[in-house]
Design goal:
Length: 345
């Protein structure tokens, strides 16, 4: 009889613990099941709850905070990892000034316009590409609605093996349910069932729930953060598309000297600049401005890999317009030598 009563208890619903009563659920869309509206923003990153309910963990945000925002989707409530918009815009503004070329690549990725086919089809590859440059825009967290009951939404249902008191392994079933209380806080109900396996017809194995434990948790809302996709108006413009003031001829020496110092800072020990020559500067239309400044550079030392990357590093510099690799005549060739023509703007 005791065994039968235990089974009955395991199959009935949980009475809400005092102080954890959910508000009455509402239908989010016509014709859908009645589920709680979880809309709101919560600080869940790095918590055991996030690890349990999110199929995608927080993305690389380059040190910026990340929150989870729940909002209604086309079919059901959705969870999104979001970097607070003000922090994201501040990051973008700084990068657009300090590293405009890097910013242009990052901006194109987070706006997804245009986006390469392989990145459109592979969200993980897309997030990895963004992470190489900066934090992402709102990122789908893969929180799955597995059904709603009694004003709660189930988002986890998993069977797992855990150590028993005698050192052996036992089976249990774990569920996580979410709801909202009257204050707007997120309610979390964790239900764990102990499973007993049996077999009537070998090799088929069945299981029944023999006991249950329930825990409750409340998580307060933070300031709301939108999970809406980023649009061009949210971010600083791409500096490379904006009109750029022409360099005054009288300023060319200072620009060239600054580039020379920056170039030397990029070089490791035992790598030297053996030639740094400014080509004659041509004034444009007698207006005091110059179309460009051209510097020929020779770098000696380092391995072949370093020299192959050096061209890309220089090209990424904010004040560099273009970089051309110069041919070295056979009679002038030395081991590990690179000659470049750098156009400054």
């Amino acid at each position: 009889m005791a065994f039968a009563l235990s089974l009955i208890g395991a199959c009935t619903g949980d009475a809400p613990s005092e102080g954890f009563e959910p508000v009455t659920a509402a239908t989010l869309q016509p014709g859908q099941q009645v589920c709680p509206d979880l809309s709101g923003t919560f600080d869940l990153a790095g918590t055991s709850l996030a690890k349990a309910i999110a199929g995608r963990q927080p993305p690389n945000t380059h040190g910026l905070p990340v929150l989870m925002t729940f909002q209604p989707g086309p079919m059901t409530i959705e969870g999104w990892w979001v970097v607070p918009r003000k922090r994201l815009v501040a990051f973008a503004t700084t990068m657009s000034e300090d590293a405009p070329k890097r910013y242009a690549r990052w901006r194109g990725l987070v706006l997804k316009d245009p986006l390469a086919e392989n990145l459109r089809q592979n969200p993980d590859a897309y997030l990895a590409a963004v992470a190489e440059l900066g934090p992402p825009g709102p990122t789908y967290a893969l929180v799955v609605n597995q059904g709603c009951q009694d004003n709660w939404m189930r988002v986890v249902s998993a069977t797992e093996q855990v150590p028993a008191d005698d050192g052996s392994m036992r089976s249990q079933e774990r569920e996580v349910w979410l709801a909202r209380d009257a204050s707007g806080a997120l309610l979390v109900k964790g239900v764990t069932y102990t499973l007993k396996h049996y077999s009537i017809w070998a090799p088929s194995t069945q299981s029944i729930r023999t006991s249950r434990s329930t825990t409750f948790e409340r998580i307060a809302q933070t300031d709301p953060e939108s999970a809406a996709a980023l649009v061009a108006a949210d971010l600083p413009a791409d500096p490379q598309t904006q009109p750029r003031a022409r360099m005054a001829c009288v300023d060319v020496p200072a620009h060239v000297a600054a580039f020379s110092q920056r170039l030397k800072s990029l070089l490791p020990p035992k790598v030297d600049v053996t030639r740094f020559e400014l080509n004659p500067v041509r004034q444009r239309d007698a207006d005091g401005n110059c179309p460009y400044a051209v510097v020929d550079v020779e770098i000696v030392g380092g391995d072949a890999y370093f020299l192959s990357r050096m061209r890309d590093w220089i090209k990424a510099e904010p004040n560099v317009d273009s970089v051309e690799t110069l041919r070295i005549e056979p009679a002038q060739r030395r081991a590990n030598t690179l000659r470049l023509r750098v156009v400054l703007r």
